[in-house]
Specification:
Blueprint lengths: L6 H9 L7 H12 L5 E2 L10 E3 L4 E6 L20 H24 L3 E6 H6 L1 H13 L1
Parallel strand pairs: 3-4
Antiparallel strand pairs: 1-2, 2-3
């Protein structure tokens, strides 16, 4: 299927997609902050630059978008691109590999890694954030 948008318009649309401070990330951060937890954001000293880090507890939290990280959950957030599959397929596959490498590096260094998915947070926020709180309070 050919792209129905011009290359210039597609470039403009893609330039507005953020890699940090996404809506789901802000939801989780605001919730944890309101409960009194303090954390580091997008901590560059760790592999993969986790979205939220509790340095004293050695907990790294990644908040992944279903589309960008290739989550096979069947939700509306996890659709596969119908245009330019030759580009998006390998790109998302490489993102999944890189995610696994970062998680393995962090776990090897003694960090507890929690991955929260967009679909889980949007459909059932409280129980999914509860696993973060349980890890912090241990």
């Amino acid at each position: 299927m050919a792209d129905t948008i011009t290359a210039e318009r597609r470039s403009e649309i893609m330039s507005h997609i953020k890699s940090k401070d996404t809506s789901i990330e802000l939801m989780v951060r605001r919730y944890l902050f309101a409960l009194g937890y303090r954390y580091r954001v997008n901590y560059k000293a760790l592999p993969g630059k986790p979205d939220i880090v509790f340095t004293k507890k050695k907990i790294a939290i990644f908040i992944h978008g279903c589309y960008w990280h290739g989550h096979d959950c069947g939700s509306r957030y996890a659709h596969s691109s119908q245009s330019n599959k030759a580009y998006w397929g390998p790109k998302i596959h490489r993102t999944q590999q890189r995610d696994q490498e970062h998680i393995a590096q962090l776990e090897a260094d003694g960090w507890k890694v929690i991955v929260l998915w967009e679909c889980q947070l949007k459909s059932n926020f409280e129980p999914n954030v509860a696993q973060v709180i349980a890890a912090i309070t241990q």
